[in-house]
Amino acid sequence: MNLLILTLVLLVALGITLYHRLSLLVTTLTVAAILVLYSLQMSIPYVHWVVFLAIFIPLNLKPVRQIISGKLLKVFKGIMPTISDTEQEALDAGTVWWEAEVFGGKPNWKRLHKVPPAKLSKEEQAYLDGPVEELCKMIDDWTISEYDRDMPPKMWEYIKKNGFFSFIIPKEYGGLGFSSYAQSQVLTKINSCSATVGSIVSVPNSLGPAELLLHYGTEEQKKHYLPRLASGEEVPCFALTAVEAGSDAGAIPDKGIICKGDWNGEEVLGMRLTWNKRYITLAPVATLLGLAFKLYDPDGLLGDEEDLGITCALIPTDTPGVNFGRRHHPISTPFQNGPTTGKDVFMPLDYIIGGSKNAGIGWRMLVDCLSAGRAISLPSGATGGSKAVAYTTGAYARIRKQFKVPVGYMEGVMEALARIAGKTYLIDAVRTFTAAGIDTGEKPSVASAIVKCHTTNMSREIAVDGMDVHGGKAIIMGPKNYMAKAYQSAPISITVEGANILTRSLIIYGQGSIRCHPYVLKEIAATQNPDTKQAVKDFDKALFAHVGFAASNKIRTFWLGLTGSRLVFKPKSDFTGRYYQQLTRFSSTLAFLSDVTMGVLGGELKRREMISGRLGDMLSYMYIASSVLKFYEDKGRPAHDREIVQWSLDYCLHQTQMAADGVLRNFPISWMGKLLRIVVFPLGMPVSAPSDKIQRKVARQLQEPGAMREELTHGMFKTPAEFNNAAKVDRALRMQLEIEPLVKKIATTLGVKPDNHQVVIFAEQAKNEDIITNDEYNLIIEAEKARLDIINVDDFETEEMVHEKI
Ligand SMILES: Cc1cc2nc3c(=O)[nH]c(=O)nc-3n(C[C@H](O)[C@H](O)[C@H](O)COP(=O)(O)OP(=O)(O)OC[C@H]3O[C@@H](n4cnc5c(N)ncnc54)[C@H](O)[C@@H]3O)c2cc1C
Question: Average of pLDDT values for 710-736?
Fold first, then answer.
């Protein structure tokens, strides 16, 4: 009996040290101390000491351990797929940030709360309230997208003159030098009016000539181009995508050959470029073409290397041989986008960004600069679009009545409204949090992929729900239709800057598992190290730490599952405390499942995208959920946010849980999946999707002009203006709410229950019978006019609808 107790004590002690991730030395001393104490009290069988010495002595003696590690390193080298230079550059790009905490199994919540809240400077706020507000007032999206298929010239002038192309350019070069959060706020506001104008403004402020020049340009190039880009004198575009190379951008066939040639009457060392690019935003109107191509030096004019690799150059579009100007017609959002070609176009080497020393490092330049930009432009577009859908759909659902009740009071519609509101909150939270991180100097490559992929996906889902709630109103095109554009244009942001299927299933987890894992990158580095002695040392250190980490995650996952994570420290004592506990639990689950899956599948995991996509979803939804907690905290935990925060967190946790369930159900070795389920879900699956009660509350709040609705849509363009449909819908909502008591009074006094079209008729009768005053009658007339103005759709003469050719 005593021996059974001893064994149990030893196992519990081991479990505790592993759970708390105590060091190997502490674990060894703890086990040794228990054995010594027991030996002093009673005789214990040798087997306990033998097992202890057999395990812990080799583990603590490095030379002995390294013999094992050396052998394992050889096995690892054999099974590890070779990492190409392009893959290595992608892996090295950017930094890892909060996503690594989530991946690591034991998030340090203090670190989350220490991230400084995103905020605007006075100057940035003034810009939003001034030039951005003015621009939004000018936007007539219907005319831009259906008739002019471009911004009017005065709007082009306005954006160039007011620095809309210069957010990322520092002040010393004539730019606005805005923070990432400020850029995000500006783009959110513009995109809430028009995705077309939003795209035009986004591109010069994303990955392109300015960003590349800032990080890699020569001082001369910076001084020449940056002020001209800031003032709009130069319009940039950046061309990477080729006909046969979309997602696989590293496979571009466009090439440059180093050679001598004539340049302004002199023979100079240069390159002869041939390219055929498509889908290039702003290319038809660009004056400065950023071009990615593969550079070759067959005659050894630069050195010994023939295949130099991907290179980026800046080419003035008036260079003879540069073809541009023709346009593509992107779905419903006709921003300037088109192909560009060139054949054997000669130019000097100093067209390369950073000069000839940067020949061949173009891929690194691109992936490095992509990590921050990807988290700003497209997520801000998703934020602006989603806020506009939430604002208008909430109001429309309340003023549109069928069966004599607002459609928004019907539970089926409420589900859609709750999803619209909840996902808008998620998008807002995650883009704000990530922008705040970037403003502290991070360039989080995995987080930026998460944010790009999930905000654009969610905003498309929001648009689909918005369409359904509006019914026919959203289907009939015309200036009164404020919904359809969000729906039609959604695939653009899904596709660009890393198409979402690829990003979700390959990049997020593919990069995340290596970059965010505390040991995998170190193990890989050791396998690539030609210095065998050092490689064994490094591998040994990483491998044994990894083993401890994996064992700890297994114990933690099982224990947190058994206790429902209720014993975990809650950083906050309100209702959010429970969510922190659940996230800690799922973080351990992800760390545990990751190690087991990587161990079972090895390099094959790269091709098993259905599994890696689900593991990526776990990481993504926990990252997004963390951002909600932070967002709510930074807002000062307003009471009116409680239900929407609950919806958002329930949604994220449920998605995380179902992704884990999917991994287990489809685990490559099915019996192992069943065993893993016992560790992961010992008492079954713990979380549910947002409850009906929460959905009803959130849906109601979205339909009332209260604090939740206003804050959820804060930052979009709400000012009443000629073309601002969102402000018109909100006005109609407010007026309807104002007349509702009057209509009720009329109905009760006259003993009628008016249909929608009878309100005005009965109001007239009520006025005549002195049930309501003249002013009240006028208010009803005006409110009904405002409502009908929203509910009505456009119609046209056939001639008006006929476009010329397209
Ligand atoms: C409106 C618009 C503007 C653009 N602007 C620019 C620009 O300014 N500059 C520029 O260089 N490019 C630009 N692009 C190009 C854009 O970046 C590419 O469209 C994008 O990289 C995807 O390439 P593709 O369209 O050829 O799709 P494909 O690469 O053919 O992909 C098709 C599908 O396969 C999926 N897929 C591909 N590989 C994998 C994988 N390994 N695992 C899982 N799924 C995979 C993709 O996710 C996608 O769903 C623009 C595109 C559009 C439509």
Answer: 98
Q: What angle do CA 509, 90, 658 make, to 5 degrees?
A: 10
- Nearest atom in ligand 1 to the alpha carbon of residue 240 is 11
Angle between helices 576-601 and 609-634 (to 10 degrees): 160
* Cα separation, 94 vs 568, whole angstroms: 32
Say yes or no: CB of residue 366 within 6 Å of ligand 1.
no
* 499 C-beta closer than 6 A to ligand 1: yes
Catalytic residues, by residue number, are 497
Ligand 1 center to residue 199 CA distance, Å? 16
Q: Is the CB of 240 under 6 A from ligand 1?
A: yes
The pLDDT mean for the chain works out to 94
Contact 31, 56 (CB under 8 A): yes
Nearest CA to ligand 1 atom 26: 246
User: What Å distances lie between residue 306 and 364, 599, 628, CA to CA?
Assistant: 19, 39, 51
| % of the chain with per-residue pLDDT over 70 | 98
For 471, residues 6+ apart whose C-beta sits below 8 A from its C-beta are none
Query: How large is the average pLDDT for residues 255-281?
Result: 96
Residue 279 Cα to ligand 1 midpoint, Å, equals 9
Looking from the CA of residue 499, the nearest atom of ligand 1 is 47
Tell me: the pLDDT tens digits for 366-398?
Answer: 988 876 678 999 999 999 999 999 999 999 999
- Count Cβ neighbours within 10 Å for each residue of 670-706 and write b for 16 or more, e otherwise: eeebeebbebbbeeeeebeebeeebbbbbbbbbbbee
Q: Does 665 have pLDDT greater than 80? A: yes
Closest CA to 518 of 500, 541, 496, 484: 541
Residue among 235, 495, 504 to mutate when testing ligand 1 (max atoms within 8 A of CB): 495
d(CA 681, CA 557): 9
Q: What spacing in Å lies between the alpha carbon of 499 and ligand 1's midpoint?
A: 5
Kindly state the average pLDDT of the residues 177-185. 97
Instruction: Supply the pTM of this predicted model.
Output: 0.96
Contact 500, 509 (CB under 8 A): no
CB of 502 within 6 A of ligand 1: the answer is yes
* Ligand 1 contact, 241 CB (< 6 A): yes
pLDDT at 372: 65
The rounded Å distance from CA 160 to ligand 1 centre is: 29
For the CA of 237, the closest atom of ligand 1 is 8
All residues at 6 or more sequence positions from 571 whose CB lies less than 8 Å from its CB, including other chains? 109, 110, 113, 577, 580
Gap from CA of 501 to ligand 1 centroid (Å): 10
State how beta strands 405-406 and 401-402 pair.
antiparallel
Helices (H), 666-724: 670-680, 692-702, 707-712
The answer to whether the beta carbons of residues 570 and 581 sit under 8 Å apart is yes
239 lines ligand 1 (CB under 6 A): yes
Contact in structure between 163 and 175 (CB atoms under 8 Å) = yes
Q: 521-538 pLDDT, tens per residue?
A: 898 888 888 888 899 999
Other C-beta atoms within 10 Å of 757: how many? 9
